[in-house]
Amino acid sequence: MSARHDPAGVAALSIDGVSHSYGARRALIDVSFDVAPASFTALLGLNGAGKSTLFSLITRLFGIQAGRIGIFGHDISRAPGEALRLLGVVFQPRTLDLDLSVTQNLLYHAALHGIGRREARLRSGEVLARIALSDRAGSKVRDLSGGQMRRLEIARALLHRPRLLLLDEATVGLDVKARSDILNHVRQLVSEQGIGVLWATHLFDEIMASDDLVVLHQGKVLARGQVSRVIADTGAQDINTAFMRLTGAAGKAGSEAS
User: Fold this and answer.
1) Beta bridge partners of 216
2) What predicted TM-score, i.e. pTM, was given to this entire model?
3) 1-86+164-258 homologous superfamily
């Protein structure tokens, strides 16, 4: 992928030849791509494509079996502390404590990152104002809507001021308006704060023509580049058709090989 790099020429996220297996099942096969700083990269794939496995490797929930992953030049295997300090993550399953208040969830997360209580309160106030939840600061999380919970998880992921944000199917289970609100908020983070974003999704309508795109199918990268270029390269009119052509061709190749 032709990534727009920072002045030092370093990608926000670099995935280089990463493979991963669960026993005999190969979940990722020689996956390589970059996410540029201050860019929105969509990782598009059906359920089971390998998106969550890749996120687990980037966040070191799983050990790397083959390949290399770097965050702003820091190898996550050799310098995990430096790498993970620059990373914020929103996983698909909700990870908030429903019985704590909105602010308590933020303060707890800040403490895990070694942020002092006074600074944590300041940052919590800032992020709540940014996501329009200041009026719910004292509410228990269980009383929030699904969209509000997801916005809170994004705010929590930004408390330690990372330069790269990963979101794994962040809009699953939300209504159309809540999905749109979350997407707009994340895109603002890219344009206003210069955060690099890797947005994993299976939904075509969450992707814009100007986004960078990685198509992941059955553990393999089938295409990468700006969305408009991927569409043009497949001779398609839209991302839906481009995806169907890419994955259909991959399916045929797999059948012929077997």
Assistant:
1) 221
2) 0.89
3) P-loop containing nucleotide triphosphate hydrolases (3.40.50.300)
